[in-house]
Amino acid sequence: MPPMNSRSADTRKPKNTKATVKRLLSYIKDDKIKIGIAFFCVLVSAMSNLAGSYMLRPIINNLVSDASALERIIVLGYNLMKMAGIYAAGVAASFFQARIMIGVSQKALLTIRGELFEKLQKLPVRFFDTNNTGDVMSRFTNDVDTIGEMLNSTLVQIFQGIVSLIGTIILMFYTNFWLSIVTIVVAPIMAKVGTTIASRSRKRFRNQQIELGKVNGYIEEIVTGQKVVKVFCHEQQVINEFEELNDNLKDAQIKAQFAGGMMGPSMNAMSQVNYTLTAGVGSILVILGRLGRMGSFSALDIGGLTVFVNFSRQFSRPINELAQQLTIVMSALAGAERVFDVMDREPESTKGDTVLKDVKGDVVIDNVTFGYNPDKTILKNVSIYAHPGQKIALVGSTGAGKTTITNLITRFYDINDGRITIDGIDIFDISPDSLRENIAVVLQDTHLFTGTVMENIRYGRLDATDAEVRQAALTSNAHSFIRHLPDGYDTILEGDGANLSQGQRQLLNIARAALSKAPILILDEATSSVDTRTERDINKGMDTLMENRTTFVIAHRLSTIRNADAIMVLENGEIIERGSHDELLEQKGRYYELYTGLKELD
């Protein structure tokens, strides 16, 4: 199995973080009221936690007061009920906040996935030819999931952390000024540690997403081609290749998770230093206060010390939580950049607004030059003329440019030079939808969708009636095997028609083309994957299918194109011979060698 295309992963430098964040937030701008309510709930929750914590001061001071035991019990019960009410309000606020943000985030993900999928439908074929399927699918799963996690919880947690931090600072200064100064001195050090780790994390989380896309792409590639792997006994080779990709992912994840994981322990260590320092200085202030050696501005009671020590922990906790949320933000931004990278790709060219009507099928390829890459020309000054109803055959070695010609007729790729016209109209002036509505294509590689046989054939023309679908099946000689299926035309096909033979799948593919009313037909080695008997059945249907249609046929079996009106022999992107079957045999050139077996097709 060949190694995976390195172009499947986006390795460009990260985009501007502010732009990415702004773009993400645009997906929730219509829910400003809901978000406002959710953030108000977060504010209530944060303030209730702070108020509940401060309630410890009167509770502890009451316990060590000179009041009678009964009075202390009564005050304790009152304070405990007050604390319970405060915390209950915080819990209720947290519940409503979570419920609201889940709805907001899922709505945003619905829009993002919808826009991403819609953009995929508008991208040119070149994008799918140069990007691994698994990596593209990873944008819908892993990358979108990380975005969802950030929108769902990270935003409100960041806000809650900021509110908690500000509230904690205010209550700390209210409790004791000097202890607050001691605690806050450590804050810049903690912030510096957090920003340093976060800056290193972002690049590593992006690399993790890229490696994950590679692994997903390779898995998809191998699962799809499992029969090929087994036929050529390459199980061990693909295992080795997967282990290499898996190891790369492991290394990337270790680096990313380690960088992100270092945030918590580092901030906790700083928190413990701060806690110890605060408790030591606070104890001294309490003792001096009891000795009457401190003014009221600096005095500190036991309850105040208990509360302040708790606040010193809470002071570091929101910083710690904010730092931890940065790892999620980094991963989400990396995923968002990959998603937006697809969304920002240039869509397929929609140049041309002419709508074809009453197409006769007069196709002219005039002096066309084309290359998939600028440095490599595939077709060189190719000219082909197909009059309405004619059958034009293209033969030649693999890589000669046969399929490329059909890709240009359908405008899957745009030509570099020359001109292609249909009924005298340049295809650049024709709407792509209108152009393809008038061209039916039967490829060598079949693809069936999950659904009934009837639905798969109807894919050729969605407004076709059941009777027209059955007639198309009769035309392609697919009806005879369809009626023997368990549920006939209502048989459900899954796994790309895994319960059908290759020939049967191709017959359904041809039935789609038969159902189409397109006056131009392209057959790209449509019978190369079927047996001789099935080929005869297909050719019978083809004769009916090709009646009154301009047809381009690519075939390796030269016996199937003997009745073509003109045969084009291509080599190295150039037409070296052209003429009818008999004319080319008389020339005793390349076609003669291929037909008589003197030289095999590659």
Can you characterise this structure?
By secondary structure, the chain is an alpha/beta fold. The protein is built from 21 helices and twelve strands. It has helices at residues 17-25, 32-54, 56-63, 69-122, 125-130, 133-175, 177-185, 187-224, 226-231, 235-261, 263-290, 302-343, 402-409, 432-437, 453-458, 466-475, 479-482, 502-515, 532-545, 581-587, 590-596; strands at 363-370, 379-386, 391-396, 417-422, 425-426, 439-442, 451-452, 492-493, 520-524, 550-554, 566-571, 574-579. The protein has a six-stranded mixed sheet, sandwiched between helices. Strands 2-1-4-5 form a four-stranded antiparallel sheet, covered by helices on one side. The chain is elongated, with a radius of gyration of 36 Å.
Whole-Å distance between the termini?
Answer: 20 Å
Low-confidence stretches: 1-14
Question: How many β-strand runs?
Answer: 12
What structural class do helix, strand and pairing data support?
A: alpha/beta
Largest sheet: 6 strands, mixed
Please tell me how large the radius of gyration is: 36 Å
| Helical coverage, percent range | 55-70%
User: For the largest beta sheet, what order do the strands appear in spatially?
Assistant: 6-9-10-3-11-12
What's the short story on this structure?
The protein has 602 residues and is α/β, with parallel strands linked by helices. The chain is built from 21 helices and 12 strands.
